[in-house]
Design goal:
Blueprint lengths: L26 H19 L8 E4 L7 E5 L5 E7 H7 L1 H19 L8 H10 L11
Parallel strand pairs: 1-3
Antiparallel strand pairs: 2-3
Amino acid sequence: MAFPVEQHVASRPERPRPPRPIAAADQPLIDRLTLVHELLNARHFASILGAIPIRISERMRSRLGELRASRSGAPVEIILSRRHIRRDGWDAACDTLLHEMVHQWQAENGHALDHGREFRRKANEVGITPRAVADLR
């Protein structure tokens, strides 16, 4: 099962997706989340994380947020659920953003994108509960 397929079959090149249009009504929220990303980056990551687009999703129902990465593992964007922001409030949305920033830290530092030991260690270090699911009451 450890056959190095990538040495024998070229993978299809990734085609960059064009950026999705941002609804005018979302821009103030995205601007605010981008500012929070900068502040949390300075506070918890010594400003080492790269700037990353943040998007609001209408479609996310069971997930609160997501770090989208390329096939190579490079972070592409952070997506937060509009439903989560509305239902759970600003503080919860900022916690979710910080959770996704821990994934961004994993991606930018060559760690696996998972909720394993390294994720839990970093999540505890930045002061969030290292869980992957919401408390769905």
